[in-house]
Hints:
Eight copies of one chain form a homooctamer. Chain A is α/β, with parallel strands linked by helices.
Amino acid sequence: MSIKQARLDLNRRKRLGMVEAIWGENKTSEQIVEILKCLHSAGELALVTRVNSEKAKETKELLENVEFHSEARCLTLGSPAEKNPLLGEVVVLGGGTSDLYVASEAELALRWHGIQTDLLLDVGVAGLSRLLNQLDRLKSAKVLIACAGMEGALPTVLAGLVPQPVIGVPVSVGYGVSLGGKTALEGMLASCAPGLVVVNIDNGYGAAMAALRILKKDF
Amino acid sequence: MSIKQARLDLNRRKRLGMVEAIWGENKTSEQIVEILKCLHSAGELALVTRVNSEKAKETKELLENVEFHSEARCLTLGSPAEKNPLLGEVVVLGGGTSDLYVASEAELALRWHGIQTDLLLDVGVAGLSRLLNQLDRLKSAKVLIACAGMEGALPTVLAGLVPQPVIGVPVSVGYGVSLGGKTALEGMLASCAPGLVVVNIDNGYGAAMAALRILKKDF
Amino acid sequence: MSIKQARLDLNRRKRLGMVEAIWGENKTSEQIVEILKCLHSAGELALVTRVNSEKAKETKELLENVEFHSEARCLTLGSPAEKNPLLGEVVVLGGGTSDLYVASEAELALRWHGIQTDLLLDVGVAGLSRLLNQLDRLKSAKVLIACAGMEGALPTVLAGLVPQPVIGVPVSVGYGVSLGGKTALEGMLASCAPGLVVVNIDNGYGAAMAALRILKKDF
Amino acid sequence: MSIKQARLDLNRRKRLGMVEAIWGENKTSEQIVEILKCLHSAGELALVTRVNSEKAKETKELLENVEFHSEARCLTLGSPAEKNPLLGEVVVLGGGTSDLYVASEAELALRWHGIQTDLLLDVGVAGLSRLLNQLDRLKSAKVLIACAGMEGALPTVLAGLVPQPVIGVPVSVGYGVSLGGKTALEGMLASCAPGLVVVNIDNGYGAAMAALRILKKDF
Amino acid sequence: MSIKQARLDLNRRKRLGMVEAIWGENKTSEQIVEILKCLHSAGELALVTRVNSEKAKETKELLENVEFHSEARCLTLGSPAEKNPLLGEVVVLGGGTSDLYVASEAELALRWHGIQTDLLLDVGVAGLSRLLNQLDRLKSAKVLIACAGMEGALPTVLAGLVPQPVIGVPVSVGYGVSLGGKTALEGMLASCAPGLVVVNIDNGYGAAMAALRILKKDF
Amino acid sequence: MSIKQARLDLNRRKRLGMVEAIWGENKTSEQIVEILKCLHSAGELALVTRVNSEKAKETKELLENVEFHSEARCLTLGSPAEKNPLLGEVVVLGGGTSDLYVASEAELALRWHGIQTDLLLDVGVAGLSRLLNQLDRLKSAKVLIACAGMEGALPTVLAGLVPQPVIGVPVSVGYGVSLGGKTALEGMLASCAPGLVVVNIDNGYGAAMAALRILKKDF
Amino acid sequence: MSIKQARLDLNRRKRLGMVEAIWGENKTSEQIVEILKCLHSAGELALVTRVNSEKAKETKELLENVEFHSEARCLTLGSPAEKNPLLGEVVVLGGGTSDLYVASEAELALRWHGIQTDLLLDVGVAGLSRLLNQLDRLKSAKVLIACAGMEGALPTVLAGLVPQPVIGVPVSVGYGVSLGGKTALEGMLASCAPGLVVVNIDNGYGAAMAALRILKKDF
Amino acid sequence: MSIKQARLDLNRRKRLGMVEAIWGENKTSEQIVEILKCLHSAGELALVTRVNSEKAKETKELLENVEFHSEARCLTLGSPAEKNPLLGEVVVLGGGTSDLYVASEAELALRWHGIQTDLLLDVGVAGLSRLLNQLDRLKSAKVLIACAGMEGALPTVLAGLVPQPVIGVPVSVGYGVSLGGKTALEGMLASCAPGLVVVNIDNGYGAAMAALRILKKDF
Lengths: 219, 219, 219, 219, 219, 219, 219, 219
């Protein structure tokens, strides 16, 4: 049944200009392989998110062309779309190494759509100078994606410093009150910085698709 | 003290390319007038949000040039920025008349920055045909702002139908579980539509500033 | 002790016109077998819900006539009640393959009571056309059960399109704010569609019993 | 703008077989009158819910044919639909006098659609004998609507005693943990009685429309 | 360090008239044995709560006189206090077999203090007749402890039927909104039955100690 | 309708041995008077809780024999039951003057049932010596009711010091995290003191009825 | 009764080295005057917090020597303690004018204990340069109190920049998810900056007393 | 990438006067070793928090000089800073053995910075005499850190008894409403004891760093 769905989705996603993405968390490696084969036979690229290393290994045993991106916890089949420099660059920022998975998912998803990207980690607000040192670097970006767990203040500080679109991604890293990412999420929504937008906790792929919509708005 | 703040904010907002906005909810009419005069003497436009009709009346008695936009619950002083058709149009959608205040705040804030706007109400998901009838109308928009209370499904449905950037604004209308807008907010964040972004509950101004960042990204 | 309970429940359930159902989640395979044997010796059908494949395997080793319905995560003993076409058909809808378990539990529970059913998956609101294409198909149904995770908008959209009773079942699929199904639940309760009713998260069996009460109201 | 909406809604509601209902809580008496006039000129009945006595008085001064139902906090214009005895009777039950408003809203909404109704108050679970004494009386009902605040146990107890469809309506009466009706709502959703369905807190109108869908399923 | 604590606690508990109880959930079998030996050498009884079968087995291998009560998930060392019939009987009631662990913990804790007890399961409110059939049986009890998960209505119904002290114990059984026992807890606190008192979720031991304080108030 | 209810309740309450209490918060003075007259003509005492001074004044104008107890926010009609010294004394403690309303409601409700009471305020845990100075005073009490807002630690400390039954009453005094009394409630439920029982926030009357059940258990 | 309490508190507060503070929010002006007179006759200073302008006016009419500090919403009687420069200075910072009340309460409470203070407003994180410009100014402070509403990021950023003790005070300013200050509170607790401590929402007085404990630790 | 981060952090931490700490919970033993080697080659001490015994064992196999402190669940490399008696002593208190991990983390972190410390367990508020017996012992401490789970009342009681700075650390021990430590946290924030400050749940390291800031304020 899921194969028919994948096929139907192709139409919708194509209309929206997006590569097919499959949420891998609740799927078995067999289900993932079935969907990937279906997409492949249709000549389509594919991106599977939220795949841990065991499931990745199982999937590769079943379908050897699959590639695992361990930092992004994603599987891909086929090559990324050709780079389209006209659309401009997206910079993905993270507060710490704990944000790596989510930031990498966003970065990979964009790269797979042919978008030029850069990844800047360790620019958290508890050590402001590192972020301030990067401000010049950020000028060339068309869109910024800022991932942060704990109190989630990075996107707020960033949106007060630069005029571009800033997409905040709360990360479910932390303990006590920050367990699960809700504190980071609410901190970003409550932000005093004007024009900051937010996606669901850990939703790197969603932030990437939002950036894609923004980059493609004139095309 | 707030006057000095307003002056300082001018620098930051100018750098970000935004007209000064003042959150009127917790301020007295005297405080609002003091800030408006300060901005006026600096040759600046100004927008005061979250002003009820009593406070608006009091403020107009103190400063007669002030204009009250009752549907948006906003005060303005001076004329809006000149319309800049190159930046493109933003369409603001609402599920019902209860979303009027929030949608109008977004629409007014954009219009005051010289952005071309349109306001489409009564396109809620409980009567889908009205929304589907407007799909052609939406094609020319560069960005869509979708306001919705209750279960907040409008932005989800919309982002599945169109490829542009969609900004969801949860509205604090409803009762029982939807009282305060949290259900609409979480529904938008949990959305299965890829690339939908969200701002705080009732934050029409924030959605407008996000749209502005998007429209200006190439300028 | 649980056997005595099962026997007592037979009286109540019979009065309510319902086949005995056992919640398998917190029971061991030994406890399940003991209850099933007791029901069998009383000439009764039985349905055990929330059984994973390991526990199903263990139970089958202890009682070989037991049948496992893996998509519905249910065990049954004996044959379903004879189909009663006079009561009419129930259609169970799901937003995605992640809703499969819950939708199948509802479908199986109804089928086991002799109700004619149909299962329509992949009709989520992020790709509206698939749902709209099925509207004619839904006309013959007496009751609709709509299962949805994430933002849970499917039952709201459905209840705005058709006049029949619609029972919403929130599904605990998702991450971040939608983790656990509470967002889907509250979205359904807050729905702007008139006359939508809701059951507990993942409660496919409960939705089936509600549909049964509705179908039997004139008998 | 709201008038156009009302007109559009007529089409949808007619298709769903429901009289137009207007949520009066956030509307001014002027807005209410405007909508009522529009409906009246279209030859339609109308029901305005959540109207307090002051707003009702104001509205009657503007439109004298309007009738106020103080126990249900509703305004109506025109006469109810002709009673249709073929559809069967709905009994609305309440745990205490504090449930009166919500139970009456449900009862009135049904009566206005031509449904035969009865209202049974003071049958709360803290004094079980009163409920048990009414069991015979409930046999003739096709659907039961059970309103309860505090711990909200009435629908659970009821659904364990009778085989008909039972719709639970949580009521926002109480203090401390039961303030706002969330405890009653969650108690009904968590119910151990099979096949109980629930609507939003205080949503008497919604429960009535759900009952209407059930009664009309064969027509 | 914990041994010294146990010794110190002896003084306090003795003054309060309670046998030493050790919360076993977060302790290793080694830590439990160390404490039990210390109590034994002081001539004291002991009760260890929240012990699963693996930890029980490990503990018995280290200290063979220990007795495991699997239904109550408790370990004891030594014999219970002599039965004191003057204090009167406590009846522990449960809504279903899922409440067995918690009800048995309460029952065992009381029995270990020399209190006469009885355990009545399967008297949940979804099948009222079973509870009503036991009312005569309850007359001789001095205190009632009612354990319930899901919506937790049993103590409310009970306290409306009998004049004795009723202690409600919410049980963390259920799924969706009732997951973790919070719905049962809040339902008991919000109860419309006068004079019902409540303890923490799953706190069978706490309910037993409350009953003990009540029974001993005149001694 | 409420009058009939009151009459029916008389039977139940009498069986439970409790004076009729009416929750005055959501009732008008006219409704209160109607119920009081009905009780009076039946020769019954009555207690109306949660009455502010304006409503009390209005009620006294309508029914002059009514007595207002401003510290307890209660109205009474008739004289209290004769004091019954055999049942023993209840001491009601409060952490601060902010607990006065709730503690007085408990104290008055007991006094009205003929129970001997004492009220000890200003024994909060932030100034332990005052509580420790009263320990001797507490020895003669059969039951203790401890009211506390903020962090609600008083009942925990008390139950560690004395062997009698202790009933904790959370009070909705405080701000920030303690606003509404939920922190005090959860603190009491989570208490490390064995055998502490709890009632709903601000439920002084409920605590009194629990104490009454305890005092009467042997009568 | 409250007077006796005030007297008793004098002993405790003196031992702790703190001036008597009275929480004015839930007290009438008569109650406040009674307590102030009692303190005055004992030769003590006094500080009443959370007093709005009406209550302040009423109180001044009853006791003319009382002084109202409108920005701090506090009343004082008598002169502040003599300034003690040896203890060092506390700087109180706020993100915006909305933090004024809370910051002023902290500042006044310290000044009244003889502590040298400074108040820096408008140093919110959405306009970082203003905060960075003040870093030199902060070097002389022994303790910093940082008040912030919305997302509450100011204390986090500050504690990453300076080595002194930083006390975060969440402020209940905002709307939507930040309504009531919980988002600011949790953001401060979840902070990635090491050694940041937090007090309750709006608790300027508490922060001041914490600063006082720190300043006096060597005296 | 994390190594570069560690190096950068050295600058910031040195400026703040703190030894480098690494949050070990979400890191692999390989990642931990990489960071430790980097710090070691820079001549720096290091502290890794939240390390369970398996991960500790794995890490020791990779880097033999590493020392595991099992009670504090921490790894260290190198010797602690030289003891600096001028800064004064910190006493860490805990309510029970369940608080051991968190209290030990705080104690170790301070000891590693050269601070003189003492650890007092089993001084919970349910057995007040043990705490009162230690009051003299506490006089010499400059700062007190009080760890408590369940209802978290220890810091409140302590701050009412002593004039020094008291830092409350909520501990995630408990079940039912106290599961996860939120009840303890909110109890400490809501505390009626003036000047109590709080850190995140289980954040022993954060409390230690706060104490360090306080001790160093004059150096």
